[in-house]
Input
Amino acid sequence: MRPEFDRYISVSAKIETRDIDWEEARQVGLTEDEKFVLTYFSDIESQTIRYLRMLLQMKIAFKPEVSAFLTTWNYEEFFHGYELANLLAACGHPLEDNRIEKVKGRARLNEWLEMLFAPLLSKIFYHQFPAVYLAFGAIQEMTTLRGYERLQNMTRNPALRTLCERIAKQERRHFAWYFNHARELLEQSPGARALTRKLLQFNWVPVGAGVKNPSEVQKLFSILFSGETGRKLVNEVDTKMATLPGLEGIRLMEPYFERTGAL
Ligand SMILES: [Fe+2]
Ligand SMILES: [Fe+2]
Output
C-alpha cells in the first residue's frame, strides 16, 4: 500500500461530538443567518451520496486507494450533514423528517456534473473524464472548506464553532485528495486537460447551486463572504485552481459571482 493511502485511512473518522454541550448550544441559540447557513450546508452534505454514484462510474474508482478514499469521504460527509441537523434540532429548529428526500426532489439537472449529461460524456471521454470529476471535486471541497472556516469565525455559538472546526479539518483533507489526484491525472493527459478546462469553464456552479435557487446561493455568499472577504475568497479559489495543469489563468468563481451581482 502507498503511504498516502495508509495516512488517509488512519485519520478518517466520524466527527467527534460526544463532548459537545448541546444544552449550552440551545441556550446561546442560533441567529437567523446561522439557521439559513446550517440548513443550506446540511442539505448539501446530505446529497453527497448522489455524487458518489457518479464517481463510481469511473474505472479508477475501483483502484484500492481511490475506493478507500471514496468510501471514507462519503462516510465523513454524511456525518457533517447529520450533526449540523442535530445542532439545528438542539437549538429548537429541527429540519423536517423527510428533508433529504425533499431536497433531492428539488435537485435540478444542473447540479454539479449531472448538467453535463455526465453518463453520456463519460462514456465518450472515458479516459479523460476522471480528471474532470476530480477537478470539480477539488473546487467544491475548497469552497466548502472556506465556508466552514468563515462560519467558525463568525458564530457566537460554542457548539457550532467546534463542529465547524472539526468538519473543516476533514474538508481540508478532502480538498487535498481531490486536488492532488486531479493534478496527477491532468499531468498525464492533454485530452483530460482540454476537456476539464472546457467543462469547468462552461458548467461549473458553486456548491449547492443545483438544489438551491440562485437567490439562496447569493444569500449564502453574502452572509459568509460579503465585501472584501468575498473578493478575497473568489480570487484565492480561482488562483489555486489555475495552478492545475491545463487550467492556467482560469476564472470560475469570479465570473459566476460577477454575473449574479454578488461581487
Ligand atoms: Fe462536508
Ligand atoms: Fe468534503
Summary: The chain has a mean pLDDT of 89. Residues 22-259 form a domain with the Ribonucleotide Reductase, subunit A fold (CATH 1.10.620.20). The chain has one domain: 22-259.
